[in-house]
């Protein structure tokens, strides 16, 4: 019998979205802590969709910060965001550092996903505030997520994974993740790809830090 090939279905043609959760058999087998995780996954679907931030200069006092850099560590793109606005600057631009400085000047708190690496770049740029270097007025969405739940599996603390696990929003890293696996160098991305990813990374870390801090304060 000839092998039958199924027709390819374009993602845009699907009338529904698919979400993954834990199999209920885990609870039946006695791993009861998965029950809350399954309930959380289903309850997230009832949330209103969290729309991405507008492409405008952030004005908040707590600023999410993210960077994209080449395989040698040279800075390529810098993203900043508050809860509603996010932009990213290519370091080849004329006024990018001046524009970045204006945003950070009015910020009280700097937010990053694994913030020590972000602070390293801010030091190199001469834009790190003394309080940040002393460990004050900083928030780390990765650390806060681990403090809230230290039992997540491998890969579960990635920025996009955490964001999709908390909010009903769309993924944004697939295209660049495919490229980074192929070449290992963000310099091979287009400027538009770096800007799109970097500004949403900055927004995501800002949103997650706020979410997990409120959860921890509530506990």
Content of β-strand: 5-15%
* Largest sheet, strands/sense/barrel: 5 strands, mixed
Integer average pLDDT: 89
Quantity of strands, as a count: 5
Radius of gyration: 20 Å
Q: Helix count?
A: 9
Which of globular, elongated, flat, extended, rod-shaped describes the shape?
globular
- What's the domain count? 2
CATH architecture of the largest domain: 2-Layer Sandwich
Structural class: alpha/beta
Per CATH, the superfamily of the largest domain is Ribonuclease H-like superfamily/Ribonuclease H
Helix-strand sequence: HHEEEHEHHEHHHH
Q: What distance separates the N and C termini?
A: 62 Å
Strand order of the largest sheet: 3-2-1-4-5
Question: Regions with pLDDT < 50 over 5+ consecutive residues?
Answer: none
* CATH class category label of the largest domain: Alpha Beta
- Tell me the helix content: 40-55%
CATH topology of the largest domain: Nucleotidyltransferase, domain 5
Structure commentary:
With 219 residues, the chain is of the alpha/beta class. It folds into two domains: 28 residues, no CATH class; 157 residues, Nucleotidyltransferase, domain 5 (2-Layer Sandwich). Helices cover 43% and strands 12% of the residues. It is built from nine helices and five strands; from the N terminus they run H-H-E-E-E-H-E-H-H-E-H-H-H-H. It has a five-stranded mixed beta sheet. A hairpin with a 5-residue loop joins strand 1 and strand 2. Helix 6 runs parallel beside helix 9 and helix 7 crosses helix 9. The radius of gyration is 20 Å and the shape is globular. The model has no long low-confidence stretch (mean pLDDT 89).
């Amino acid at each position: 019998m000839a092998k039958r090939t199924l027709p390819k279905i374009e993602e845009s043609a699907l009338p529904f979205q698919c979400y993954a959760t834990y199999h209920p058999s885990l609870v039946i087998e006695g791993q009861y802590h998965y029950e809350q995780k399954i309930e959380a996954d289903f309850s997230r679907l009832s949330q209103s969709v969290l729309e991405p931030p507008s492409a405008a200069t952030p004005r908040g006092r707590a600023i999410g910060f993210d960077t994209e850099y080449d395989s040698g560590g040279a800075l390529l793109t810098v993203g900043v965001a508050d809860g509603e606005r996010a932009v990213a600057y290519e370091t080849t631009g004329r006024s990018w550092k001046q524009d970045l400085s204006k945003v950070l000047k009015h910020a009280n708190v700097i937010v990053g996903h694994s913030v020590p690496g972000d602070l390293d770049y801010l030091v190199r740029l001469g834009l790190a505030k003394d309080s940040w270097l002393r460990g004050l007025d900083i928030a780390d969405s990765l650390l806060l997520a681990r403090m809230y739940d230290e039992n997540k599996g491998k890969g579960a603390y990635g920025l996009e994974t955490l964001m999709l696990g908390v909010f009903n929003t769309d993924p944004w890293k697939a295209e660049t993740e495919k490229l980074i696996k192929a070449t290992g160098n963000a310099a091979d991305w287009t400027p538009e790809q770096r800007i799109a990813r970097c500004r949403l990374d900055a927004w995501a870390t800002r949103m997650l830090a706020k979410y997990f801090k409120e959860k921890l304060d509530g506990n």
